[in-house]
Predict the structure.
Amino acid sequence: MSELDVGIIKQEILSLLVSAKNGLSEYELLNDYRLYNSNKELPYRDLGYSSLIALLRSWPDVCRFQQQGNNIIKILAVEEENTKHILSMVKGQRSNKTRRRGRGGRNRARGGDANRNNGRDNRGARFSQNTINFNNNRSGGNRENFSYLML
C-alpha cells in the first residue's frame, strides 16, 4: 500500500475513535470501519501486521489503549491540538443509557384525565354534543320518553 493509503486509513480510524465517547473494543472498531467503508475490511494484513492491535500499537499518534476488566482493551483516540475540541464535545454528550423523565402529570395512554378526550369517545371517534344521558336529562330520567331512540 502506498503512503497516501496509510494516511487515509489513519484518518478514518482516528475519526471513528474520536466519535466514540468511551472508546471502542477491537471488534467494535473493525465493525465500525466495515460499516463506514462499504463493507471493506480494515487491511491490517496488507500492511504487514498479524492483528489490528499490532497495527494500532505502531501508530501511537492515532490511538492509545486502556485496560478495562478481564481482557477487555478499549482503544481511545489520542488528544492532539486538532482533535482536542472535538473530543471535549464528544465527552460532554449524554449517553444513550440515560432515560429522559416525563414532565409530570398523568399518562393519557394509561387512563389519564377523562376530560381530555375533546369530543371523542374511547375509540377516537367523534360523538355529537346531543348525546343523551339518561341519568341527567330534564325529563326526570324517564327512559320511556326515548324509546324511539333505543332499537
User: Anything to note?
Assistant: The longest strand covers residues 63-68.
